[in-house]
Write a structure and sequence with these properties.
Blueprint lengths: L1 H19 L33 H43 L1
């Protein structure tokens, strides 16, 4: 059993050493950039983004609020179940002991 543990520990250590060592840095060739007047791209006037309909936005907010209320009620119910279960266990423990 000791040999198996030592073997596994050695394998894990060697894997960590292999994965942790950085790879040899590649020698990069220097890149030279030649900027010419033709390379400049004129800015285009585009829409800033999608248009949001206020009716859809309010509907989405209502749905989000509804979901938050449902999740809050479920969390409260689960908390009550946990507290009730603890009190029942506590009473049983006092009655038995």
């Amino acid at each position: 059993m000791v040999k198996v543990r030592a073997l596994l520990a050695g394998l894990m250590l060697s894997t960590l050493v292999v994965l942790a060592t950085p790879a040899a840095p590649a020698l990069a060739t220097p890149v030279t950039a030649h900027v010419t007047a033709a390379a400049v791209v004129p800015q285009q006037a585009t829409d800033p983004g999608p248009r949001i309909d206020p009716e859809q936005n309010s509907k989405a907010n209502q749905q989000k609020t509804k979901n938050k209320i449902i999740v809050g009620v479920l969390a409260a119910v689960l908390a009550l179940i946990v507290l009730w279960g603890r009190s029942v266990r506590k009473k049983k423990r006092k009655a038995a002991g």
